Amino acid sequence: MPFVPHTPADEERMLETIGVSSIEDLFDEIPPALRAGELNETPAGVSEMTLMREMRARARQNELELSFLGAGAYEHHIPAAVWDLTTRGEFMTAYTPYQAEASQGTLQLIYEFQTMMSRLMAMDVANASVYDGATAMAEAILMAIRANKKNKSRRVIIAGNLHPHYIDTCISIVSNQGIELVTAAFDSVTGEISTESLDACGECAAVVVSYPSFFGTLGDVHALTDWAHANGAMMVGVVNPTAMALVTPPGQWGEKGADIAVGEGQPLGIPLASGGPYLGFMCCRKDIVRQMPGRIIGRTVDTDGVEGFALTLQAREQHIRRGKATSNICTNQGLLVTAATIYMSLLGDAGLRSVAINSAGGLGELVDSAAAIDGVSKRFSSPGFHEAVLELPIPAADVVSLLLTEGILAGYDLGERFPDLANCLLVNVTESKTSEDIARFVSALSNVLQLQVEGGAAAC
Predict the structure, then answer these.
(1) 3-class secondary structure per residue, the chain
(2) pLDDT in tens, 230-285
(3) What is the pLDDT of residues 175-231, one digit of tens each?
(4) pLDDT (0 to 100) of residue 326
(5) pLDDT by residue (tens digit) across 398-444?
(6) Distance in angstroms (rounded) separating the CA atoms of residues 367 and 389
(7) Average pLDDT of the chain?
């Protein structure tokens, strides 16, 4: 039996009290051109039993023995204590601290999260998270436009080697606010963008780069950051938090450091779960903190001198007038922040660095072994972190399909978004992969390539 909180009679009484004739009248300020209309493709409702049967069948399709797919979501080992603690009732049922003084435990946890993220990124301030990495990048673009008082341009240069889904999300969000996104081309040999590619894009108010890039490459962020600042633009870094335990964090890029750093927190103790939920993190310089969306928790003392925690900055539409809010789409992903905080607490500096080193080492092992196969090579020459592009003698889509029959998810077919890279496979290795796992992948790859090449020769 469906749960319907309001009967038709309830709805009539409420509409009469409000003084409108229908629920549609409540949305009359939305122009007709922006309305979705009837949802004709929405399927009919089903019973709970049917739904659970369908979901179990879909879950079984995800049963793989090995996965080398990254592309924005990564299979790291998660200590058992992380989710044993995260799913305690105190955390699981708490939504968000609207009554801050009554939520000291939650506020302290978020404060610890902010402290850890600030340290990891070498930045002054971190907020209490946003939706996910893609929307964090969009929020950073909007923030950079607001914060850059000296540059009135509403053009933003984004690196062409950024995650394509992130770019799609940003186009959906910021283009409606009169902001032009200009893509800087990446070099076909290195996979990276250069200051010359930024020069070709012209004037801008902000530059957005990925470190590592979508291809796993590590470019010269110092030169790019200095270029941005020399041209009156703000630098936004989109980074992998695990990589920051090993490579230069955004706060130390170039002469002055990046202005804003964002990214996806999924690698920090969040399991792979059909696309989420995840959490976006955001850090910035102190002098632009008032343009930061979301919330910031501060540590203070009460009138008796007892230490406590409070919502220090809260420029959300729930706290101030909607028109003055820095964002109407951000939220803090409290449960995921809890898991990430516990994960970082358990691993500490040395543990997180060990994860990064082992992930990078495993990738080197895979690339070296795969490159020994006839017709396989590393596509880009730049150094990288735990992800790399393999160029194959046949379409990557074919390899992905064939290895699935072996119980191996080979990686991401770059031809889906980059037509010039149709024969290229993006592979990922984390500390969860052993040398035996890597050897099995390389052996399976060698076998399917040999069969395909021999089959093609026979057909000729």
Answers:
(1) CCCCCCCHHHHHHHHHHHCCCCHHHHHCCCCHHHCCCCCCCCCCCCCHHHHHHHHHHHHHCCCCCEECCCCCCCCCCCCHHHHHHHCCHHHHCCCCCCCHHHCHHHHHHHHHHHHHHHHHHCCCEECCCECCHHHHHHHHHHHHHHHCCCCCCCEEEEECCCCHHHHHHHHHHHHHHCCEEEEECCCCCCCCCCHHHHHCCCCCCEEEEEECCCCCECCCHHHHHHHHHHCCCEEEEEECCCHHHCCCCHHHCCCCCCCEEEEECCCCCCCCCCCCCCCEEEEECHHHHHHCCCEEEEEEECCCCCEEEEEEEECECCCCCHHHCCECCCCCCHHHHHHHHHHHHHHHHHHHHHHHHHHHHHHHHHHHHHHCCCCCEECCCCCECCEEEEECCCCHHHHHHHHHCCCEECCEEHHHCCHHHCCEEEEECCCCCCHHHHHHHHHHHHHHHHHHHHHHHHHC
(2) 999 999 999 999 999 999 999 999 999 999 999 999 999 999 988 888 999 999 99
(3) 888 999 999 999 999 999 999 999 999 999 999 999 999 999 999 999 999 999 999
(4) 67
(5) 999 999 999 999 999 999 999 999 999 999 999 999 999 999 999 99
(6) 9
(7) 91
